[in-house]
Amino acid sequence: MGQIDLLLNNAGVLFLGETRQMELADWEWIVGVNLWGPIRLTHALLPHMIERRAGHIVTTASIAGLVGTPGLAAYSLTKSALVGFSEALRVEVKRYGVDVSVVCPGPIQSNLNDHGRYGSARAKSGLSEGLLARTAYSTQKAARAIVRGIRKGKGHIVITPAAHAMWGIKRLSPELGYQINRLLWRWLSKDVGMTV
Predict the structure, then answer these.
(1) 3-state class of 60 per DSSP?
(2) What pLDDT score was predicted for residue 67?
(3) Alpha helices of the chain — where are they, by DSSP H?
(4) Strand pairing partners for 7?
(5) What is the pLDDT of residue 74?
């Protein structure tokens, strides 16, 4: 159609387990997909959007990018980087008519965990049958929330009540957020077969 109006940086992978269980190859893999993928796509398409003085870049991060999530340290690292990247880019390109949003969802029913790497044999089934089964939004519901956020020109599009609560608590009291995170880790670690 001769132009690009919307860039959706949505690819992502995860490692579920303790940081001590990760190999350097796991770090390189997750940083390559979650961080370098959006950087490369944005680098390729941003000049076109600036030249047209129009366009919207939407990058999927995670609530783990706003609140460091135990068991997902590498995932949190990459998603935090995407939040910072999107916030800075949004300011830089506004004068060119380009908008930027970062999506920070809580658990979503997607195939993310199908392609993840895990620190224990039970972690994958524990994630899909435990936390995700109890709390995840459908992809359709998430997509509608993202579209609403784009239409409103939001810089941060936070999805799911759990994500809103976690982000709100951290902003209100980082220490309280830390204590709640410790409790959540105790709960999650049982699902995924880790001892705390």
Answers:
(1) strand
(2) 94
(3) 24-31, 37-52, 73-93, 123-126, 132-135, 139-151, 161-172, 174-191
(4) 57
(5) 96
Question: What residues in the chain have per-residue pLDDT under 50?
Answer: 196
Q: Find the helix or strand (DSSP H, E) in which 105 lies.
A: strand 99-105
Gap between the Cα atoms of 131 and 76, Å rounded: 17
Instruction: Give the pLDDT score at 134.
Output: 55
- The three-point CA angle 35-40-44 to 5° equals 155
Domain ranges of the chain: 6-191
Tokens representing 115 are 């392609």
CB atoms within 10 A of CB 119: 19
Among residues 75, 96, 118, 178, the one annotated as catalytic is: 75
pLDDT tens for residues 98-151?
Answer: 999 999 998 887 777 777 888 777 666 555 555 555 556 788 999 999 999 999
Of 69, 64, 75, 67, nearest to 22 (Cα)?
75
Provide the whole-model pTM: 0.88
Q: What DSSP letter does each residue of 150-176 carry, written as one string? A: HHTT-SEEEESHHHHHHHHHHHH-HHH
Per the listing, tokens 């490369």 go with 40
Domain 6-191: give its CATH superfamily: NAD(P)-binding Rossmann-like Domain (3.40.50.720)
Active site residue 178: no
What is residue 99's predicted lDDT score, i.e. its pLDDT?
98
User: Hey, is 179 helix, strand or coil?
Assistant: helix
